[in-house]
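[job 0412] stage=fold_complex status=start
inputs:
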Amino acid sequence: MSERTFKQVGTRPIRHDGVDKVTGRASYGADFSLPGMIHGAVVRSPHAHARIVSIDTSAAEAAPGVKAVITGEDIPETNAKLMLGEGAIDLHDIGDNAMAHAKVLYHGHSVAAVAAVTPQAARDAAALIKVVYDVLEPVTSVDRAMAPDAPILDDTMTTKGQPGANAPTNVAQRMELKRGDIAKGFAEADVVVEREFRTATVHQGYIEPHACVARYGEDGRAIVWCSTQGPFAVRDQCAAILSMDPANVKVIPSEIGGGFGGKIVVYLEPLAIALSRKAQRPVKMVMTRDEVFRATGPTSGTKIRMKIGAKRDGTIVAADASLYYEAGAYRGSPAGAGMMCAYAPYRIPNFAIEAFDIVVNKPKVAAYRAPGSPMAAFAIESVIDEIARQLKMDPIDLRIRNAAVEGDLAPYGPPYGPIGLKAMLEAARKHPHWTSPLGPNQGRGVACGFWFNAGMNSSASVTLNMDGSAAVVTGNPDIGGTRVAQALMVAEELGIPVERVRPGVADTDSSGFTDVTGGSRVCYATGMAVIKAAEDVREQLKARAAQIWKVDASAVKWEDGCAVPPSGVDKAEPMSVANLAAKLSHTGGPIIGRASLYAPMAGPGFGVHLCDLEVDPETGCSRIVRYTAFQDVGKAVHPSFVEGQIQGGAAQGIGWALNEEYVYDRNGVMENAGFLDYRMPVASDLPMLETVIFEVANPLHPYGVRGVGEVPIVPPLAAVANAMRDTTGIRFTELPLSPPRVLAALEQEREPVAAGANAAQAGRPGRS
Amino acid sequence: MAKLHVQTTINGEAAEFLCEPQESLLDALRNELGLTGTKEGCATGDCGACSVIFNGRLVPSCLVLAAEAQDRSITTIEGIATGDALHPVQQKFLEHAALQCGVCTPGFIVAATALLNRNPHPTETEARFWLAGNLCRCTGYDKIIRAVLDTAAETRKAAV
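[job 0412] stage=fold_complex status=done
writing structure:
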């Protein structure tokens, strides 16, 4: 497999959907309209935690232009569960999150919705809805949530995985992993470092707000046009929440303006269907940016205690950690994934790790690129950096000494197959970035990162046209270039030019069932289905050629895009796809290749990032001056989009490290719900982001693909923090490393007494 | 209040529409004129997805009132290509794979066009600061900046 040479896979053709996207023709969630369409607006809670006493909708219903008003009474509570993305989700929580019933659990929680003839009329009417609240104390940190006297969000919640814990609690679950004997391991250690880390709540930050149009018909069927990572996921969630048969819900995905995990669960779609059902008109709903921040995403704020012990030669002998992840308003933080990822890059003979899923009065967290892993990596990669400093070892050498290799057991159980981690670390050590001199006020950091990469359900069909061109259809919205990758696979298998393969994304009536665009699974799992569907076409073409040559199909070979006859057949010449396609009508009719499969979890993905950072000692403002990301991708089907995934993930991680955070006031109200104050990286914040692609083939995929999109957001948090430690001498344990926090720490270094108050606010960074 | 009647020039052609007094140019372009290539990412002037060229000046159309378009000339993403020929910036975005989800792309292309109109040979730093008003969450900007600088390099070559 690794010896396979490719003709088209690995080239960089222009994406098929590119011209539509550079000319403004591509249609995104908010770009779609229907005749007779009206507009929805959501009424959102002004409190972070409150009981709903009453809702009076009479004034809104009487307002001009209003066609429908809904509240929690129109969205019945359900106990259905659904396998979605990388785990089962509780539809009760998704439904209650889309429209609150008894309580509101965060500022911005939806309590009612209005549909009216214009967006302005809907907004005006929404303002007339009177909700009486019994306001409760908000809980906005894991520490407060776990305090004995903490207000309880859900009176029925007990701690899963903690036998005997029957009192109501905000701790939804405790999980753990163990191996070996940590007491013995730490006893053997020459150096032990333990730190406590915190990361802020951050948002996926996709540029396109959530948007949909829903039309509910008199026949009880609903059609939803929306921007989503998973049309089947939207269909099945809406059906379960609204007690409909999924067969009566059709979801047509638009182009999607970013998701990063945040466009999998439904927010607006069930409301739009319910409003349309009441109004008997198509209903469009589009979130404002403020609503996106307050009521969708984000990912967990965390507290992590991490302890590592190593011998004098750098061998890690023991690790012990506790992970506390905010779930937001409902259970389901990625604490478990963080727990499984934390130690994944290293061979650690003795370890223990526990993880807690904790509810707080913030938006219900959604998946965000390698959910749970970046925070855990921030903790362990910072501690490993500290161990290297104490042992006076090169931090890459220390990592090479402990790097997991093929055959080592992953912390979550199975042995690793072939992985490129150690080879990447060795390449990083020799890379000119690592050996180049640093300027004044500059520091350098390194960090590793891991993500599982998902498999799951995928379907694909390939249609051969009479002229020898082909179309490939899947149910995965294309978020970053997957269509052109799928076209490359079909082109490779059939031996036709990639420009003659038209890749498309179909709706839920037209595509075979396919899980979400997420988990770095599209090029891997759906790609596998695409390859199999193209192979199916090829096999059928061989059978047609055999029919023409009057030979047995098994005697026909396929070489260089042609069916080749067995020797000795009179006047039989090899026939190309185009030759055979021209004869389809006379050899049995059209050909469709299809495949559907459940792909096992993909090849483990690792990355190694190097970061140079410069700090202005007068302002605490920092700047990334050089950045290099190494990643083992298995096989880069379209290298430009693989590089793009790595660069984009690195940039998001840099934003998480340096500036991004939800800032809350004492009432649990987010104070920075806009792009001006929620500071994502802009072009002038970043240098070019160098990528180094490693291709250690994944044996589970015919081309060796292992998934690429999520790994690159894992290392940057620690790579940036380690660079900050290198230049300032200060070990920061709390993100983001925003200018005020860095300046306070620098001032404390310069004048420990005078700057004490500021430093306390900055999370007590300590010189190590 | 009655709607306002606005007569303007959009992408070189006369256009007219009715709008509410408080309506933004962005909403008028999208909802009254069907020019949905201009995107809304924030409606507060922070993301640049709604960038248009307004009488020669790059502006976020979400911060311009639709009524201000009276007797002005506006270029939107739909007016960047000439006939069936892409603008060099558009072509370079495709060649460099400078887009992933693509929703910020119209704003970037309008902004990059405005940059090159004003400064045909920007340095990397100039390009980065000019485009700092446009948010992209997918690419990390690397390929976008390369596409813009390559467009400039190619036009310089063509001019020699």
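[job 0412] summary: Residues 32-136+208-257+263-295 of chain A form a domain with the Aldehyde Oxidoreductase; domain 3 fold (CATH 3.90.1170.50).
[job 0412] exit 0
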